[in-house]
From TrEMBL:
Name of the protein in its database record: Uncharacterized protein
Superkingdom of the organism of origin: Bacteria
Organism: Aquimarina aggregata
Segments passing through the bilayer: 20-38, 50-67, 79-99, 105-122, 143-166, 172-191, 212-232, 238-258, 270-294
UniProt keyword list: Membrane, Transmembrane, Transmembrane helix
Length: 305
């Protein structure tokens, strides 16, 4: 187990350097950003103590990917494999847990720790014969596959938007919009095999434009029900919902570009870290998107002409 964490630490340092970030700077900056972002979240969001644990669950689920899990199963006994999974999730929730303790929210702290441990034992649902219909065409495979795996999250988001009307809380409706864009961004966490990129008769610019256009179209489509409800009952505040629509679109675009900018196996982990940081500090996307676009275009040049 010690060897595993030694290699993991080296791997994290290597990926940080691939991002152009000095590891020591990242280890200082990330806690500062998390503290600032969490403080802002609690100041500006109603019922933050209820929503914060949900954000932690999204974060842990984001950076957990099946290939790494399969690797652990092959290399370690079942007992050590379970222990590593539990420790990994505990390490991931520790920053959030420390912040909740700092805020003297002890019940929420225990909940976050328990959720992290429980997630380490959850297995993926087995495939069933029923094929869930989707509102998408065949070719945006990220949305087709992703929607069928996470359709229940959309039901929850739509339910939250209805609750926002019943309890007269506009912020809950906005949270529903944010959660949908967040889930849509996760569809672009894993890079498809290079062959499925190579078969496109496009230039890198055309390929990225096509991917981004599809993602924007269907992300907005999924949020239309919530925006429509908010427009009817909170028309004087609809500009806030539209502002979050724009930020949500930028968030999805950033994930797409990250997907092709860094095509290594640990990509999902760093997408998760950067994604959560940008949730807390959205203006960072205006700097990151052009950088990731340049990197993605450069990487795709070898596959697309």
């Amino acid at each position: 187990m010690k060897l595993y964490y030694t290699l993991l630490f080296r791997r994290i340092n290597r990926h940080l350097k691939e991002l152009g970030i000095e590891p020591i700077i990242a280890y200082v900056a990330i806690p500062c950003f998390m503290y600032w972002g969490s403080s802002s979240f609690f100041e500006k969001v109603m019922y933050a103590n209820y929503l914060y644990p949900l954000l932690v669950v999204f974060f842990v689920a984001t950076i957990s990917f099946s290939k790494h899990d399969d690797f652990l199963k092959q290399q370690f006994s079942n007992l050590i494999y379970r222990g590593i999974n539990v420790l990994n999730n505990v390490f991931l929730v520790l920053p959030f847990l420390f912040f909740l303790v700092y805020k003297q929210l002890y019940a929420e702290s225990i909940l976050v720790l328990l959720l992290g441990v429980i997630l380490s034992f959850l297995k993926k649902l087995s495939k069933v014969n029923f094929v869930l219909p989707t509102p998408f065409y065949r070719w945006p495979h990220e949305f087709i596959v992703g929607f069928r795996k996470t359709f229940w999250v959309f039901l929850l988001s739509y339910g939250v938007s209805v609750i926002s009307i019943l309890v007269d809380n506009f912020n809950l409706g906005v949270f529903g919009i944010v959660s949908i864009f967040f889930i849509c961004s996760l569809y672009y966490s894993n890079l498809e095999p290079q062959f499925y990129i190579w078969v496109h008769a496009m230039t890198p610019e055309e390929f990225l434009k096509n991917k981004i256009t599809i993602a924007i179209r269907y992300s907005i489509l999924l949020t239309i029900p919530i925006v429509s409800i908010l427009a009817i009952f909170y028309f004087d505040q609809i500009y806030i919902a539209l502002m979050f629509e724009v930020l949500g679109v930028l968030y999805v675009v950033m994930y797409i570009l990250m997907k092709y900018a860094f095509n290594s196996l640990g990509n999902a982990m760093f997408q998760g870290i950067i994604g959560v940081l940008c949730l807390f500090f959205p203006p960072a996307m205006f700097l990151l998107i052009p950088y990731f676009y340049y990197k993605a275009k450069s990487n795709l040049t070898t596959l697309l002409k």
